[in-house]
Design a protein that fits this description.
The protein has 331 residues and is of the alpha/beta class. The chain has helices spanning 36-47, 67-81, 109-120, 150-155, 169-172, 193-200, 220-229, 240-269, 281-291, 298-302, 304-308, 310-330; strands at residues 3-8, 12-17, 23-27, 51-56, 85-88, 124-129, 134-140, 143-144, 159-160, 175-178, 181-184, 273-277, 294-297. The chain has a single domain, classed as Nucleotidyltransferase, domain 5.
């Protein structure tokens, strides 16, 4: 039986089978003229799953009037694409029932992850740093203790809205230190975190899946040109060493801000263990070391490919485990 999990975000749609043999990441930005319906039909034709379990965060995309419209669009796209059983996971980590509030499906991909982590590992803070956001979810006694909406999690510091690829550097930094002193940052979308981490060697061009800020390529030179623009410079005006230094300052600031949020969540819930996932595991490991917390890597436990699509994998495993439990009861 082939069971696949699907995590539909605003920028990326991630696919994973419960056995970990299928791992796919599709860049499908919902705020554009989205290809989600046709892309899901192609995925269904290619993979032909027996069952599908879905989590989502893409309902927040600003092409939708509100989250409800986004949820309904995503559900319609999925239900029309697959002719097998489809289930959805809500923000409590449970299967959604039609009698429940459909809004509970909003931004629930982390709930699938924490349900699996709570079962497999136990008490911890599950931290998933992806392309766009960072989830910081406390888990105790097998259940998560986080707020049930993005709004509440932002207030509680359980959602830090910065990631490894798509975050505008003007959000993270007000100024940078260059050879001639401190320099204010241009408040424009000139460069994103992907440029900094590409230049530092923390990600490859293959991981750089999102659009670039200027629509140009993803080579080191093109990333350097974008980084130079945040201080209103051309490559003729600023050295490679200075640009490397700017990239390091981006990383240091993101580590600092992520550490602050994790520390608040840790103290509130009396936790000192981090379980990390996502393309930003390298960043989380630095945070854990900075805070002196025990550190467990999903990439080391389940594999780096699964870590990158962990909510999709968790959704598939939850459905598989449910089916196995039902089968054992019957026997």
């Amino acid at each position: 039986m082939r069971i696949i999990g699907i995590d539909i975000g605003g920028a990326n749609t991630k696919i994973a089978s419960s056995d970990g043999e299928i791992i796919e990441l599709h860049y499908i930005p919902l705020w554009k003229d989205t290809t989600l319906p046709s892309s899901l039909e192609d995925i269904a034709d290619k993979l032909r799953p027996d069952r599908v379990c879905v989590v989502m965060t893409g309902e927040l995309a600003d092409c939708f009037e509100d989250k409800l419209q986004g949820i309904e669009f995503i559900m319609s796209s999925v239900n029309n694409a697959f002719d097998c059983e489809v289930k959805y996971i809500n923000s409590r980590g449970d299967f959604y029932e039609s009698s429940e509030n459909i809004r509970d499906l909003a931004a629930a991909n982390w709930a699938a992850s924490t349900r699996l982590i709570g079962t497999e590992i136990g008490d911890c803070m599950f931290v998933d740093v992806g392309s766009t956001t960072s989830d910081i979810i406390p888990i105790k006694n097998g259940i998560h203790l986080a707020g049930l909406t993005d709004f509440s999690r932002l207030i509680r510091k359980e959602l830090f809205y910065a990631g490894i690829l798509r975050t505008n550097l003007a959000f993270l930094l007000e100024k940078v230190n260059v050879a001639d002193g401190d320099c204010n940052i241009a408040s424009e979308l000139f460069s994103t975190t992907a440029d900094a981490y590409l230049l530092l060697g923390d990600i490859s061009e293959e991981i750089y899946t999102c659009d670039t800020a200027d629509g140009a390529g993803k080579t080191r030179k093109e990333a350097m040109r974008r980084l130079a623009r945040i201080v209103c410079a051309d490559l003729t005006e600023i050295s490679t060493d200075e640009l490397q230094n700017i990239a390091r300052q981006v990383k240091e600031r993101q580590v600092e801000l992520l550490s602050e949020s994790i520390d608040i969540v840790a103290k509130r819930n009396n936790l000192n263990r981090i379980v990390s996932a996502g393309i930003g595991e390298f960043l989380i490991e630095e945070v854990a070391d900075k805070l002196g917390f025990e550190y467990i890597s999903v990439a080391r436990k389940w594999g780096s490919d699964i870590s990158k699509v962990f909510p999709a994998y968790a959704a598939a495993k939850i459905m598989e485990n449910e089916l196995m439990m039902l089968k054992s009861r019957k026997e």
